[in-house]
Request: fold
Amino acid sequence: MNERDLSITYIPILLTIFLSPLYILIFNNIGYVVPVITPYEDTGFGAITNTIILLSITTIFGVLMLVIIRWPKLLNRVILLLALYIIFSTFSFYFLILERFVHQALIQLVIVYLIPLVITGIAYLSIRRRKRVVYSFVLLNSMVGMGVIFNNSLPTTTKLLVIIAYSIFDYISVSKGILKKMFSHPGTGKNIFEPLLIMFGDIGIGVGDILFYSLFVVFSMELLYPFYLLGFAASSFSILIGHLINLKVLVKKKMIPALPIPLISGLFVVYGFRLFMGL
Reply:
């Protein structure tokens, strides 16, 4: 694995970092209040239960993938359909901001449904024709948007626990759990999971990693309010340094968990600033 293959992975990381504030700006101007998706109050045991529920859903989905993996072509189609659905629904949501500038129902329909459908079609054609950069750029944007939505649909304490829990889950899953079993299963490889990989070069970054990086950037800006720029800088620095460490480890391994080092270290940095500044 040469240096160019490694250095090019900074492209999706930097895009995620700088697109996240843009998407939160769009989100805040849509005027749509995203409902909280967790059933319990955000205190004590309630936040822990919320996190366990989300982890359980993720685990069930992973187990289903392990079942379907016996039929690689079917699994690839399921993953592709899931990715295309995420792309369409995310872009459809963010194009709601344009509704306020038009008052004709037909034009609103075109904006909210037709344009996202065209973008989804471009993504589909791109991955089928092996135009991975185009597909990855579209998918990355949708996952950054999803990260912002996810950030706004979780209460604060649950959000903190989710970041910690999923970082641990990522490590276990890659080292000895679901992801390791998927990628080591006979007859499967990177191509099967390519619809859920953002690839600029030969190294793929999982959509979940982009989602959590985006969520963390926006969450850090909220935690250090009213010092938004400090939150952005602290989270960006943590993600970039964490990614650098990840790349050093990746030289020796085929696959590594991308979340633990950037996010856990980032939480220490951000909460350190909160403590120091008395926020």
Notes: The beta strands are 197-199, 204-206. The first helix runs from residue 3 to 7. The mean pLDDT is 87.
